[in-house]
Specification:
- By secondary structure, this protein is an all-alpha fold.
- Helix 5 runs parallel beside helix 7.
- The relative contact order is 0.13.
Length: 138
């Protein structure tokens, strides 16, 4: 599975987790391997666990960058994509920020509404700039 396909798989599981709040993210991954016949992938497992292990920090960044939007009101696919991309920007140092941003927008074009790519791009760009500022301050 290439990285784009892995992001699609991670998107499905992160999206599903928003409806299966009692279910452990790792268990959802294991179930997806069997039921969706997904190929085992370290990146997918790392992203899913990373998103939910750091959900409070990730959602705070998203909500702070999405002026006038609360997490609870955001469309599920958009939110899942922004969570994955924010996780990547914060914790996956081998993935360039522009690659994460581009992948999120491309997946939004495929799986979300017509307005979603612009919204996602705007929010994630603000987050990327705030992360750069934090890195520069360290």
């Amino acid at each position: 599975m290439n990285r784009h396909e892995a992001r699609e798989a991670a998107l499905g599981i992160v999206f599903e987790k928003s409806f299966q709040t009692a279910e452990d993210a790792g268990k959802l991954y294991d179930t997806a391997i069997v039921e969706r016949e997904l190929e085992e992938d370290d990146y997918v497992r790392r992203v899913i666990n990373g998103v939910f292990d750091n959900l409070e920090e990730i959602d705070k960044l998203i909500e702070g960058a999405a002026k006038g939007w609360k997490i609870a009101r955001m469309p599920g696919v958009s939110l899942a994509l922004m969570r994955i991309c924010t996780y990547e920007m914060l914790y996956e140092k081998d993935i360039p920020v522009n690659v994460s941003l581009n992948e999120a927008v491309e997946l939004a074009k495929k799986f979300d509404s017509d307005d979603a790519p612009a919204f996602i791009n705007g929010v994630l760009n603000k987050i990327s700039k705030s992360i750069d500022v934090k890195k520069d301050a360290e």
